[in-house]
Amino acid sequence: MPEMTKRDPDCLFCKIVAGEIPSSKVYEDDVCYAFKDIDPQAPVHFLVVPKEHIKSCAAVDGSNSAVVGHIFEVIAKLSAELGLGDGFRVVSNVGEQAGQSVPHLHFHVLSGRDMTWPPG
Ligand code: AMP
Ligand code: ZN
Q: What is the pTM of this model?
């Protein structure tokens, strides 16, 4: 990890980024890490997380928004490489009521099945 990376010692996804908890890697660079969701909700379901500990979308500001922009570039690149041209969904739950269970910013990428709207 880059020296400047901020981490939370108690955070599950910080531990995954550091390799302290195993994960099934989809992609990695200096800024972000992508890995398969352990409980997939679609034939393709992976998570993209910043290596830096950011709590959620609600904690995005001028100091870290470039990381989010980079993650969306990575999602576009991966969607092309993985052949998700029929459609995919990007979801980020924020807070308990919205279903956020891990307080480290993550983007779910789901694909490979028909999806309904609105979500539950
Ligand atoms: P959320 O509920 O939106 O915070 O998303 C957290 C996601 O992390 C869920 O979809 C979980 O299935 C997933 N998850 C939890 N632990 C792990 C793990 N060790 N490896 C991969 N995915 C995980
Ligand atoms: Zn974290």
A: 0.96
